[in-house]
Amino acid sequence: MSTKTKPSRSYVLGGDLTIDRLGYGAMQLTGTGVFGETSDRVKAIKVLQEAVASGVNFIDTAEAYGPKLNESLIADALHPYKNGVVIATKGGFNRPGPNQWIPNGDPSYIKSNIDGSLQRLKTDTIDLWQLHRIDPNYPVEETLKPVAEAVKAGKIRHVGLSEVNVEQIERAEKVVPIVSVQNLYNLGNRQWEEVVDYTTERGIAFIPWYPLASGPQTLADKIGKIAQAHNATIAQIALAWLLKRAGNILLIPGTSSVQHLHENIKAGEIQLSDEEFESLSK
């Protein structure tokens, strides 16, 4: 597990989009179960606007958040988008109700997801479109065909995947170039180590979802001591560990609080020593 003493805060996504590695995930700005409208729309808009005002230039959303409502919220809050702000969205889930997530890789559904996202985000080109899940009922080649067509048509700039293994990434890349992978990964759950290493070697961004989880209780004392030494919270140390883990890791911690937003952003200022990093990694 390689580390850098001073991780860079910037990353060039897809070879042409320079972004700050500490972004913002908008999933929490929805109703209970990631379904329906957010309970306080005015507050949600303020959080999004404050994120961009504070230097965040990578915002992650999805057609499935709401569904659809989260993308419209982002457009209402941020459009016209500030120069350099990158909006990433996802498609490929049916949402019949709260906490219900059903993969749908039907090419016609994927095409409608892309066209709908373009309209809701009020943009001609989606900076990063990600396949939310691979649907086992459809060959990924079929699912990604309308995505490749959208790239050729200029509707999508770059393409990413979510919750995939190395074999699936390589299979998808035969259809369309893949610039990012968004998998569950954090200090306490490192089931995708192989994918992190693979994407690092390939120059593909790795975007951990659920990045704030700090791990099992067995890590609590260790993290607590390091957090105290840096005058930081446990969550900030969890984010700092990810930033140091690999230079291609982009963080999208989510929150519905401006105060918590600023706490997350400050995590980028924490420089863990190699010894602290190794201690947390054991």
Describe the protein:
It comes from Terrimonas ginsenosidimutans. Pfam families: Aldo_ket_red. The protein is built from 10 helices and 11 strands. The protein has a single domain (10-281), classed as Alpha-Beta Barrel (TIM Barrel). The chain is of the alpha/beta class and 282 residues long. The N and C termini lie close together (11 Å). Helix content is 38%, strand content 15%. The chain is globular, with a radius of gyration of 18 Å. Strand 3 (24-25), helix 1 (41-53) and strand 4 (58-60) form a beta-alpha-beta unit. The strands form 3 sheets. It has a 7-stranded parallel β-sheet with strand order 3-4-5-8-9-10-11, with helices on one face. The chain has a two-stranded antiparallel ribbon with strand order 1-2.
Spatial ordering of strands, largest sheet: 3-4-5-8-9-10-11
CATH superfamily: NADP-dependent oxidoreductase domain
Q: H/E element string?
A: EEEHEHEEEHEHEHEHEHHHH
How large is the share of residues in beta strands?
5-15%
Number of domains: 1
The main β sheet shows up as:
7 strands, parallel
Total of helices: 10
Task: Quickly give the structural class.
Answer: alpha/beta
Distance between the termini: 11 Å
CATH class: Alpha Beta
| DSSP helix fraction | 25-40%
Shape: globular
CATH topology: TIM Barrel
β-strand number: 11
InterPro entries: AKR, Aldo-Keto_reductase, NAD(P)_OxRdtase_dom_sf, NADP_OxRdtase_dom
Protein name: Aldo/keto reductase
Keywords: Oxidoreductase
